[in-house]
Amino acid sequence: MNALRKAILLLTILMISMSNTWAAPIYAYPVVGCETIYGKYHHDYPATDIKAELGCAFVAPIGGVIQDVSRKDLWSGKTNLGQHRGGRSVSLIGDDGVRYYGSHLSRVMKGIEPGLRVEVGQKLGEIGTSGSARGIPRPHLHFGISYQTQPGDWQIRRGVIAPWKYLDAWKAGKDLSPAKAVAKAQAKAGN
Prior knowledge:
By secondary structure, this protein is α+β, with helices and mostly antiparallel strands. It has one domain: Glucose Permease (Domain IIA), CATH 2.70.70.10. The chain is built from four helices and ten strands, in the order αββββββββββααα. It has helices spanning 2-22, 154-157, 164-171, 179-189, and strands spanning 31-32, 37-38, 48-51, 57-59, 64-70, 88-94, 99-108, 117-118, 123-127, 140-146. The N and C termini lie far apart (60 Å). The relative contact order is 0.20.
């Protein structure tokens, strides 16, 4: 019986180590198939512009449920309304409870609608120059991380924490969660 116990123990250890090695990542870098660059700072609120070629894939950085979708570019330089600056965009409530926002898309993929369950790495749209990015020479994805609010809340969805360290981790294939930092930002804002 001693040999059988050793074999079962060895098999159990082997299965645990294999499952950790082959486990799918929880998080993914939100742009695939293209080279990208991004800075550690953004205009006057925490977010990141990920510069890439026109049409590069914007993918779900985590599994979750789509909250907001804007398929029409309603931005006008004459009015410059905040709620229209993102142009074509998608907001996702991740399985970690955090909202992820991508905007300035050239298009949102067919079937991406509020309430749809998506998986990490699923294509949500393509990088472009819609909204206030119109006329900027280099297409980019405005990427924001925030806490959940009501659908349509553009001030919060555009970003409440700087995403660069999470992007660095995800690009390197590491799972780094922004959930604690988002909760801290939400508590500080009193929401």
